[in-house]
TrEMBL record:
The chain crosses the membrane at residues 39-57, 63-82. The keyword Transmembrane applies. Residues 1-28, 91-112 are annotated as: Disordered. This is ATP synthase protein I.
Amino acid sequence: MSKDKHPGKNEPGTPEPMPGPAAVPGENSDGGYNAGMAVFSYIIGGIIVWSLIGWGLDYLWGTRWIVLAGALLGAAGGFYLSHMHGLTSSRKPTGGNGAASGPSEDGNSNAK
């Protein structure tokens, strides 16, 4: 009698293949990391810059609350910038051909 071979099962003693994006070399596997760092930089940069502006205005005007308003404005502005750059969207283009990827496949364009 012979042993039944089950497709998808490894022989005993052979290592299992690694799942996930790490198993696909050559792909842009750090795109999520880069986008996350860009979002973090926009938000932290906005908070720092607008807090310093608020601190300066507080010093000039003798108030104490503009630095907090500057920090909130900087965080909102950083998130807005990252959203406008398309870094906060979790949607991916479907079908592989987006409108911004180039001319249509048949070569026709709307320009006349």
